[in-house]
Design brief:
Strand content: over 45%
Number of domains: 1
Strand order of the largest sheet: 1-4-5-6-7-8-9-10-13-16-17-18
Number of strands: 18
CATH architecture: Beta Barrel
Distance between the termini: 36 Å
Largest sheet: 12 strands, antiparallel, barrel
CATH class: Mainly Beta
Helix content: under 10%
């Protein structure tokens, strides 16, 4: 990360879609075709990438957009196949952006392409290729290939993600890292339209992902939080489904990440507006 200044974060299609979910179990899709458009604008007080401290100064804004295409659907072993293309961006008013050495707000712009398969019993699998770039020149372009498998465990959405750095390093080290993330997201219905989700995840280095003073460290971070989305429009709205959403996450960092931050815990608060059509 060029010291502690490089800031970037993956925006997989599944994450974008999940953050925009309204929470209605049997929603009426206003756009029942094979193409789905989602977008969001969020603001946060802290930017971390897989536990690696990035920026906690000024205002941090995350505009994102995703195009999803359903290639097939059925009732056999393979229930669906999809491709997604999207972009995720990070705008900073603090030290990583307009108040920093570059003097420019647009810190990061990412592009990703993914392919996903839906299987029987709620199992999903997918692969995502991501390019991370910095419009204000704060870090070199980084390229990554990741694989994700989702499996319901006792009715709870759970997943495992493995990522391989193809070019560049998230930690600014010398080794292209291999990363493992395990997570789950129990959800609870508060009303017919509102659902609170409690995401829990842990990030681990498989090889060279968290390079510290004593070499590669296995533990990167642990986080637990709560997220709530509130619909602004009905399911039948011809302009798509709009929602406001927000949440908070408590993060416990590993030794090398805590050394970069200057503290071993952080509370991340975020809120924004989302659209799905």
């Amino acid at each position: 990360m060029g010291g502690s200044g490089r800031v970037w974060q993956v925006a997989a299609a599944a994450c974008v879609a999940g953050s925009l979910a309204i929470g209605t179990a049997a929603a009426q899709d206003p756009n029942p075709g094979a193409i789905t458009l989602t977008g969001s604008m969020d603001a946060s007080n802290v930017y971390l990438f897989r536990g690696i401290p990035q920026d906690d100064t000024g205002i941090i804004m995350w505009p994102a957009a995703d195009l999803g295409i359903e290639l097939s659907s059925g009732r056999g072993t393979i229930r669906s196949t999809t491709v997604n293309f999207g972009t995720w961006n990070s705008l900073h008013s603090g030290s990583a952006g307009s108040d920093g050495p570059s003097g420019k707000l647009w810190y990061e712009s990412d592009f990703y392409a993914s392919f996903g398969v839906g299987l029987a019993k709620g199992v999903t699998a997918g692969a995502t290729y991501t390019i991370y770039a910095s419009p204000n020149g704060s870090f070199p372009t980084v390229k990554e290939l990741s694989f994700r498998v989702g499996v319901p465990v006792f009715g709870v959405s759970s997943y495992a993600l493995v990522a391989f750095e193809l070019e560049g390093q998230a930690d600014g080290g010398v080794t292209k890292g291999k990363y493992l993330e395990l997570g789950a997201a129990p959800s609870y219905s508060l009303t017919k339209a509102m659902t609170i989700t409690v995401p829990v995840k842990v990030g681990l280095s498989l090889d060279g992902y968290y390079e510290g003073l004593t070499g590669d460290e296995r533990f990167g971070f642990f986080s637990v939080g709560g997220n709530l989305a509130v619909p602004l429009t009905s399911d039948r709205n011809q302009f798509g489904r709009w929602n406001v959403h927000g949440g908070a996450d408590f993060v416990r960092l590993g030794d090398s990440n805590a050394l970069r931050l200057g503290e071993n815990t952080k509370v991340i608060i975020s809120a924004g507006v989302g659209l799905s059509y």
